[in-house]
Amino acid sequence: MLELKNLSMHYGTCAQRTQVVQDISLRVNQGEFAAIIGPSGCGKSTLLRLLAGLEQASSGALLSGNAPLTAAKEDTRLMFQDARLLPWKTVIDNVGLGLRGQWRDAALQGLEAVGLADRARDWPAALSGGQKQRVALARALIHRPRLLLLDEP
Questions:
Q1: How many domains does the chain have?
Q2: Helix or strand or coil: residue 129?
Q3: Which pLDDT value is given to residue 104?
Q4: 9-23: per-residue pLDDT in tens?
Q5: Phi then psi for 36, rounded to 5 degrees?
Q6: 26 SS3 class
Q7: CATH number for the domain including 126?
Q8: Which of 46, 126, 136, 148 stands 20 to 30 A from 69 (CA)?
């Protein structure tokens, strides 16, 4: 379970404070799917960064189970708005980033899951924007995260 209680986030000092997220409460049970929609600049990406443990809330509580979520966790993956692929690595090497041991088979399975196994040896520059996003998705899924956060995939 993931729970947000009166969560707020602002940047800057009191004199030049920008409120990004204000007083959000939400509960998502294990196995549920939730979507957050809103106009550009309303704080959706900031909220995902908070959930991923990449930012700290200004106020309120963020709970994973019954424990406070205060830092990034191994079982959480955030897929950013852009694919963030390393241009000097092949597609399969981008999927396998951070993995150890015999990771190539798992990376190839991840690429198969997103329909890009035939592009494993290509460079990111040879892919369309949508294909790059699918590589990023395979990279996130290969870790089998308990919490998968997608920022405009």
A1: 2
A2: helix
A3: 94
A4: 998 877 788 888 899
A5: -115, 120
A6: strand
A7: 3.40.50.300
A8: 136
In this structure, the answer to whether residues 88 and 138 fall within a common structural domain is yes
Three-class secondary structure of residue 51 per DSSP: helix
Please report, for residues 21, 54, 82, 123, the alpha-carbon distance to residue 153 in angstroms, rounded to integers and kept in the order given.
Answer: 21, 19, 8, 20
Q: Same structural domain for residues 146 and 78? A: yes
57 and 109, same domain (yes or no): no
The tokens describing 21, both together, are 């997220």
Positive or negative, the CA dihedral 98, 1, 39, 133 is: positive
| Pairing mode of beta strands 147-150, 76-79 | parallel
65 and 96 co-located in one domain: no
Residue 64 belongs to what domain range?
2-71
Same domain, 80 and 129: yes
DSSP of 83-119: ----TTS-HHHHHTTT--SS-HHHHHHHHHHTT-GGG
What is the value of pTM for the model shown?
0.84
